Amino acid sequence: MGSQSLGKLTSFLVEGIVDRAGWVLANLADAGKNPSVRATHSLATSLRRLMTARFVVRQLYGTKILKRKEVEAIKSFCSILGNVRDVQEMRGKVVPLGATSEFLASFSQSLKEREESGEKLIRKAIDCFDSSAIERITVPKAVRKKIGSAPLVSLDELVERFFCGVREYYREAIEEKDDSALHKMRIAYKRFRYTVELFSPHIIPLTSGELLYLKTFQDAMGLAHDWLVIDQAVSAYAESTDLPGKDAALLKIRDMRKDCHEEARAYIISELDAVARIAETPINYK
User: Fold this and answer.
1) What is the sign, positive or negative, of the torsion defined by CA atoms of 171, 176, 177, 178?
2) 10 Å Cβ neighbour count for 34?
3) Is residue 281 left, alpha or beta, with left meaning phi > 0 and alpha meaning psi from -120 to 50?
4) pLDDT in tens, 7-45
5) CA 193 to CA 143: how far, in whole Å?
6) Which of 10, 193, 207, 259 has the most CB atoms around its CB within 10 Å?
7) In angstroms, how far is CA 184 from the centroid of its own chain?
8) How confident is the model over 113-134, as a mean pLDDT?
9) Cβ(99)–Cβ(240) under 8 Å?
10) Which long-range contacts (CB under 8 A, 24 or more apart) does 104-109 make?
């Protein structure tokens, strides 16, 4: 790979990191004003995209754009956002079912209380969050100084490695129908997808339609995960009460979870080869 090609790769990576850091700061401001479902989701997603970009730099160049304690602080913050987001998503799916039994009505009310508590927690977490590390990497020169002069591995190798991480969980998640493996497959897929997005469309020349297709594939796994979380939460709540309709509600939720997981698995089986072809898109280094 020539020096001109290396310069293009580095410049595009720097631009991507700066953009993602800017998105995080903008979403922090929005969520601080109103930690709605949309704002919480946007903030969490922008943080994950930034963390993927950080990981890509580490894998490509062997260098760090964030210190360990900064990374740990972001991970802890993401965990808080994820927990609140789970409650918000649960409430959106369970509340319409609340009228079917006293048990589900009670569970829906508990979710409302948890959501209100979670929104206060997010506001507090945002107030306490030190965004100086993220502000630092909104400056292109500061980011470029952190990146090495030449990659240790090619971008082709890195994309292939990340997609192999997705395939690693395929047998357990799909053939053995292991829900925890499906969740791990989803996490690995996010790393692959966010990396491809980071270099698109100039280095990895994907169309907007292909990028949307990658998102749709992830959404199928995400919906399955949402129903897994709902099942676990409803089961835990059922242990604390003997309200009428508990057993019927548990059966209903588990049937919905099973149907959703089967749909997700069928979709993955039918579409994984198409995603693999996108993953093999030739890198444009020139």
Assistant:
1) negative
2) 11
3) beta
4) 788 889 999 999 999 999 999 999 999 988 899 999 999
5) 22
6) 193
7) 11
8) 93
9) no
10) 104/245, 104/249, 106/241, 106/243, 107/233, 107/234, 107/237, 107/249
Domain spans in the chain, listed from the N-terminal domain onward: 1-152, 153-286
Lowest mean pLDDT, pick from 3-17, 109-123, 135-149, 256-270: 3-17
- Residues 138, 140, 144, 145: is their CA dihedral positive or negative? negative
User: In the block, which residue shows the tokens 């990658």?
Assistant: 214
The CATH label, of 1.10.3470, 1.20.120, 2.40.50, 2.60.40, for the domain at 1-152 is 1.20.120
